[in-house]
Amino acid sequence: FDKWTDGQRRRILVDLLERCSLSQQKFCAKQLQARVPVEAVDFTTRLPRVLSLYIFSFLDPRSLCRCAQVSWHWKYLSELDQLWMLKCLRFGWLINFYPTPFEQGVWKQHYIEMVRELRLTRPKTPSKDEFVVIDVQPVKSNVPERKLPLAAQRTSRGRKELPPWRSSDRNPTDTIRYNYLDNYDPIEQARQA
């Protein structure tokens, strides 16, 4: 066996496993699990449910919704009423009925409905005529400038490069975010709007 190649060893092992009974195959599986280290383990399946919920309780609503997309087990944990009830009660949002033990996700739905009812107004985006970009000029200093090499002078004359804090788009639209599940206090957002 020591002198065989890897392919020969694998063929022999497959033949042996096919000839073994189910109990012998389970024994082999247990032996392999003990010897081969586990590479990726979901901590929520290994930890007690209370500890997993405690870890999830530190997440904001948006992160909890993202966790629900990881796996079925994470979806089950991240939509439990124990997590969402605390987030609703923090704002004083109570439900007006007693959910049955079979109803799941009542507090999450209530949280989303309450945030939507706030009717947060979108911030006014200035029109292109009102939007003014101030041209930034470098500050002159008393220190004499040193000369650039000849190759660098040619590239700087050819085109004008924008400073790193400015982009070519004078009306950026990616800076405004509208998400009901932000971690900000929705009441404060409504007052500011």
Kindly describe this structure.
By secondary structure, the protein is an all-alpha fold. Among the domains are: 39 residues, no CATH class; 76 residues, Monooxygenase. 48% of the residues lie in helices and 0% in strands. The protein is built from 10 helices and no strands. α7 runs parallel beside α8. The longest helix has 14 residues. It starts with 5 loop residues before the first helix and ends with a helix. 7% of the residues are buried.
- The chain-level mean pLDDT equals 75
CATH class of the domain at 46-121: Mainly Alpha
Helix content: 40-55%
Number of strands: 0
Low-confidence stretches: none
Radius of gyration: 31 Å
Portion in strands: under 5%
Overall form? flat
CATH architecture of the domain at 46-121: Up-down Bundle
| Tally of alpha and pi helices | 10
CATH overall fold name of the domain at 46-121: Monooxygenase
Q: Helix/strand/pairing class, anyone?
A: mainly alpha
Largest sheet: none
Give the H and E element order.
HHHHHHHHHH
State the distance separating the first and last CA atoms. Answer: 76 Å
Organism: Catharus fuscescens (Veery)
Pfam family, one: F-box-like
Biased composition (Basic and acidic residues): 158-172
InterPro entries: F-box-like_dom_sf (IPR036047), F-box_dom (IPR001810), GEF_Ubiquitin-Prot_Reg (IPR052805)
